[in-house]
Design brief:
One of its GO terms (cellular component) is lysosomal membrane. By secondary structure, this protein is mainly alpha-helical. Helix content is 52%, strand content 9%. The protein has 29 helices and 17 strands.
Length: 799
C-alpha cells in the first residue's frame, strides 16, 4: 500500500461491515491526539443534535453542526476529500433465504403475471400523482406570483408619477423576503433534507445509499410548499429539481402501499416492500418529475438513466416511459381545464419554452463552429459557477450552520435580489415599443415614453420561466446588448449565491436563463455582421444554444439534456447542435472541476460509487481493501450473544457472516444475515426452545419482515429476558445461504465491478478453504479514488 497517498481520517461509530477500516489511526491510542481535530470535522450531511437518534442526526442539505463549534476549522480541513461513514447502504440484492425461495416456489404463473401488472399500475399511479403535484405547483406559482407582481407594478406606476420610488423598492424587497422566509422556515426547522433541488440525494439513493428522510411524506409536503415560496419570492431558482425529488418521494410512498408517517397501511403492494423494488419505482418517479417539468417523457427516461439509476433493464425502461407519459398527460389535462380549454393538451409541461417551428431560425452548416465555441464558453462559465458555489458552500459549512442563520441568509438573498432587480430596471434606458403582439406578462413603463416598456423589466420583473421564454421568442431588437450583458453578469452571481440556500430550489431554469441571455447577446453581435443584407444570426436561436451550453457547463448532462431541450422546444432540427454544444461544455467544464451535483455529493460526504474503479487500482487486492475484523455468528447461536453483538455501539454492525464448525475443523462460511433480520427474529422470539414447546407456534413468514420494512426497530426497543438470553436461535432458515464471495487475491476493479453491477451491500472475502477472512462494503471501495498524487486512500476512523 506504499504507493497510495493517505489523505485524511474520518471518525464514525458505524461501518457496514461492522469493522473499522484496516490500519485505522484511532485504533492506536498513541495516535488519538494527533487526529483529534479531524475527528471533530463535521460531515456535510450530519447534524449532531442532543436527543436525536443517529439516523435523525444525519445532516440534510444546507444544514451543518459540528461536535465542537468553538474550535477553528480551516478551509483546507473542510474541503478535504472525506466521506461520512454514518451513511448506510441499501440492500439492492435479493436475500435468497429459505423463506424467499419457498414463496417463489408457491407462486403460480398467474401470480407472477399479476405482480407484473401491479408494477405497471404502480407506475401509472406514480405518473398521475406526480402530474397532479406539478399542476398544483404551477397554478400556485402563477396565481401568487401574478398577485405579487401586479401589486408591485401598480405601486411602481403610482410612485413613478408622484415620486418616491424608494417605497416601491421597499415593498418589493419586503414581499420577497416575507415569502422566502416562510419557505426557509419550513425547510430549516422542519425538514432540512427538502432544501436544494434534491437531485444529488436522489442520485445517491439510486446509487445504493440510504439518505435518511429523503423519501418521506413530510419531505414531499415541505418540498412542494418550499419551492412555491422560493419561486414566488423572486429568488433565482427553478422548480424542475424539486419536481424530480417530489416524483421520487411519490414513487417511494405509492409503491409500498402504506404511509409510515401517517401510520396507515392499505395492505396493497406488500410484495414491493424491499429496497430492490423501491429503487425501480423511485427511478420511475424521478423520470416522471422530469417529464412533468419539461413535457419531455423520453427526456425523463434518459435523465433517470444518465443521472440517476445505477441499475437498468429493458422492461423497467418501458415502465418508466409509461409513468413519464402519464405524468405529462395528467399535467396537460388539468392545466387545460384550469385555463378553460379542456380540449387543448398541447401544453409542453410545467416549464414552457415555446415552439421553435419557423424556418427562419434553422441553422447553417457554417454556424456549427460557432455553436461549438459557445459550448466552450458555457463550459468555462459553468466551471466558474461551480467553483464559486463550492467555496460559498464551504463558507456556509463554517458559518451558516444554524437554522436561524439559514433563514436570515435566505431573506437577505431575497432582499438583495429584489434590490438589484429594481436598481437594474431603474437605471436602464432600454425602452422598446409595446406592440399588439407583445408577450410580456407584466410590462413596466417606468421612465419610458407612452406605448413603450422597459426591456430590462422583462428579464427581472417576471418568473424565471417566462423570462427564458421571452429571450427565446421575442423579436430581434427587443433587447439591446448592454441590457443583456448587465443581466447576465448580475443574474450569474445571484443564481450562484442562491443555490445552496435552505430553500427548495432547482438550478435548471437559472442556468437556462443565464445562458439564454448571453446566447442572445452573441446572436445580436453576430447579426451585426452584414451578410447579403439578411439577418443570418437569429437572436432566439443563439439564445437556445447559449441556454443549452450554460446548463451543460453547470450540470454536465449530455444525452438526456439534448432530448429534453428538443422535446421542450418542439423542434428536432436543433438536436445535432445541442448535442455538440453539450458535449463541448462537458469536456471543457470537466477539465477544471466536476459537475455541480457531483460537487455537492462530495460535499455531503456520501460514499458514492461511480461506474468504474480508479484506473490505476488493478494491483490492489481484496485482502488489502477489505475490513478484516469481521464479527461472525454461528448457524445456531445463543440469543444473548446476538443481543450483545447488536447492542455493541462501538461497532454497530449491519451484516454478519454465518459460519458452521464441523468435527472441530475451522469455521467455514455457510451464509450471511443482516441486522434488520436479526431484530425481526428477536422481536418475534424465534428461539429453538420456544418452537419446540409451542406446537401451534406460527411460523415466521416474509410478510413479517416486509411489515417491519423500512423502519426496523432499534435493538434497544427489543426486550429479552435473562432466561431468553440462554435460548438458542437457528439462523438456517433466515440467512442468505448463497452470499457473494471473492477470493483474497481478487483485484480491486473486479471486486468493484461485482459490487457495483449487482448492487451489493456486503461482499464476503474467503480463503482457499472457504473461511471468512474479511468483508468488503461500499465504504471500503469508496475510499479509493484518483487524485493529484495518483491513487489516494481515505482512511476511516472510529470514535
Amino acid at each position: 500500500m506504499a504507493n497510495i497517498t493517505k489523505k485524511v481520517s474520518w471518525s464514525s461509530r458505524t461501518d457496514e461491515s461492522g469493522t473499522p477500516g484496516e490500519g485505522t489511526p484511532l485504533l492506536n491510542g498513541s495516535e488519538r491526539a494527533s487526529h483529534s481535530r479531524q475527528v471533530r470535522l463535521a460531515c456535510w450531511l450530519t447534524v449532531v443534535l442532543t436527543g436525536l437518534s443517529e439516523e435523525d442526526s444525519l445532516f440534510q442539505i444546507g444544514r451543518l453542526s459540528t461536535v465542537d463549534l468553538e474550535e477553528e476549522i480551516t478551509s483546507d480541513e473542510v474541503k478535504s476529500d472525506i466521506f461520512c461513514v454514518l451513511f448506510q447502504s441499501l440492500d439492492y440484492d435479493n436475500i435468497e433465504n429459505q423463506l424467499f425461495l419457498e414463496e417463489e416456489r408457491r407462486m403460480s404463473y398467474m401470480g407472477f403475471r399479476c405482480l407484473e401488472i401491479s408494477r405497471w399500475v404502480v407506475c401509472g399511479l406514480i405518473g398521475f400523482l406526480t402530474g397532479l403535484i406539478a399542476c398544483f405547483i404551477d397554478i400556485a406559482v402563477e396565481e401568487l406570483a401574478g398577485i405579487k407582481y401586479q401589486v408591485v407594478k401598480e405601486n411602481i406606476e403610482k410612485f413613478t408619477e408622484v415620486g418616491g420610488l424608494s417605497i416601491s423598492l421597499l415593498l418589493w424587497a419586503v414581499l420577497n423576503s416575507a415569502i422566502v422566509m416562510m419557505g426557509a422556515i419550513i425547510v430549516a426547522f422542519f425538514e432540512p433534507i427538502a432544501a436544494g433541488s434534491g437531485i444529488p440525494q436522489i442520485k445517491c439513493y439510486l446509487n445504493g445509499i440510504k439518505i435518511p428522510r429523503v423519501v418521506r411524506l413530510k419531505t414531499l409536503v415541505v418540498k412542494v410548499c418550499g419551492v412555491i415560496c422560493s419561486v414566488v419570492g423572486g429568488l433565482a431558482v427553478g422548480k424542475e429539481g424539486p419536481m424530480i425529488h417530489s416524483g421520487a418521494v411519490v414513487a417511494a410512498g405509492v409503491s409500498q402501499g402504506r404511509s409510515t408517517s401517517l401510520k396507515r397501511d392499505f395492505k396493497i403492494f406488500e410484495y414491493f416492500r424491499r429496497d430492490t423494488e423501491k429503487r425501480d419505482f423511485v427511478s420511475a418517479g424521478a423520470a416522471a418529475g422530469v417529464s412533468a417539468a419539461f413535457g419531455a417523457p423520453v427526456g425523463g427516461v434518459l435523465f433517470s438513466l444518465e443521472e440517476g439509476a445505477s441499475f437498468w433493464n429493458q422492461m423497467l425502461t418501458w415502465r418508466i416511459f409509461f409513468a413519464s407519459m402519464i405524468s405529462t398527460f395528467t399535467l396537460n389535462f388539468f392545466l387545460s381545464v384550469y385555463h378553460k380549454n379542456p380540449g387543448d393538451l398541447s401544453n409542453p409541461g410545467l416549464i414552457n419554452f415555446g415552439r421553435f417551428q419557423s424556418d427562419s431560425v434553422a441553422y447553417n452548416l457554417y454556424e456549427i463552429p460557432l455553436f461549438i465555441a459557445m459550448g466552450a464558453i458555457g463550459g468555462l462559465l459553468g466551471a466558474l459557477f461551480n467553483i464559486l458555489n463550492y467555496w460559498l458552500t464551504i463558507f456556509r459549512i463554517r458559518y451558516v450552520h444554524r437554522p436561524c442563520l439559514q433563514v436570515m441568509e435566505a431573506m437577505l438573498v431575497a432582499a438583495v435580489t429584489a434590490t438589484v432587480s429594481f436598481t437594474m430596471i431603474y437605471f436602464s434606458n432600454d425602452c422598446q415599443p409595446l406592440g399588439p403582439e407583445h408577450s410580456e406578462e407584466y410590462p413596466l413603463q417606468l421612465f419610458c415614453a407612452d406605448g413603450e416598456y422597459n426591456s430590462m423589466a422583462t428579464a427581472f420583473f417576471n418568473t424565471p420561466e417566462r423570462s427564458v421564454r421571452s429571450l427565446f421568442h421575442n423579436q430581434p431588437g427587443s433587447y439591446n446588448p448592454l441590457t443583456l450583458g448587465l443581466f447576465t453578469l448580475t443574474y450569474f452571481f445571484l443564481a450562484c449565491w442562491t443555490y445552496g440556500l435552505a430553500v427548495s430550489a432547482g438550478v435548471f431554469i437559472p442556468s437556462l436563463l443565464i445562458g439564454a441571455a448571453w446566447g442572445r447577446l452573441c446572436g445580436i453581435l453576430l447579426a451585426s455582421i452584414p451578410s447579403n443584407g439578411s439577418i443570418w444570426a437569429d437572436p432566439g436561436k443563439y439564445a437556445l444554444i447559449g441556454a443549452a451550453a450554460q446548463l451543460g457547463g453547470i450540470v454536465r448532462m449530455t444525452l438526456s439534456l439534448t432530448v429534453i431541450m428538443v422535446e421542450a422546444t418542439g423542434n428536432v432540427t436543433y438536436g445535432l447542435p445541442i448535442m455538440l454544444v453539450l458535449m463541448t461544455a462537458k469536456i471543457v467544464g470537466d477539465y477544471f472541476v466536476e459537475g455541480l451535483y457531483d460537487i455537492h455529493i462530495k460535499l455531503q460526504s456520501v460514499p458514492f460509487l461511480h461506474w468504474d474503479a480508479p484506473a490505476t487500482s488493478h494491483w490492489l487486492t481484496a485482502r488489502e481493501v477489505m475490513s478484516s475484523q469481521v464479527t461472525c455468528l454461528n448457524r445456531i447461536e445463543k440469543v444473548g450473544t446476538i443481543v450483545d453483538t447488536l447492542s455493541n455501539t462501538s461497532t454497530n454492525h449491519n451484516g454478519f457472516p454465518v459460519v458452521v464448525t464441523e468435527n472441530e475443523h475451522p469455521a467455514k462460511l455457510c451464509g450471511l444475515i443482516l441486522r434488520s433480520q436479526l431484530i425481526v427474529l428477536l422481536k418475534h422470539k424465534v428461539f429453538v426452545e420456544l418452537a419446540r414447546s409451542r406446537l401451534t407456534h406460527r411460523k415466521l413468514q416474509l410478510k413479517d419482515f416486509r411489515d417491519a420494512y423500512p423502519r426496523f426497530p432499534p435493538i434497544q426497543s427489543i426486550h429479552v429476558s435473562q432466561d431468553e438470553r440462554e435460548c438458542m436461535m437457528d439462523l438456517t432458515e433466515f440467512m442468505n445461504a448463497t452470499p457473494y464471495t471473492v477470493p483474497q487475491e481478487t483485484s480491486l476493479p473486479r471486486v468493484f465491478k461485482l459490487f457495483r453491477a449487482l448492487g451489493l451491500r456486503h461482499l464476503v472475502v474467503v480463503d482457499d478453504v472457504n473461511r471468512v477472512v474479511g468483508l468488503v462494503t461500499r465504504k471500503d471501495l469508496a475510499r479509493y479514488h484518483l487524485g493529484k498524487h495518483g491513487l489516494e486512500e481515505l482512511q476511516l476512523a472510529q470514535t
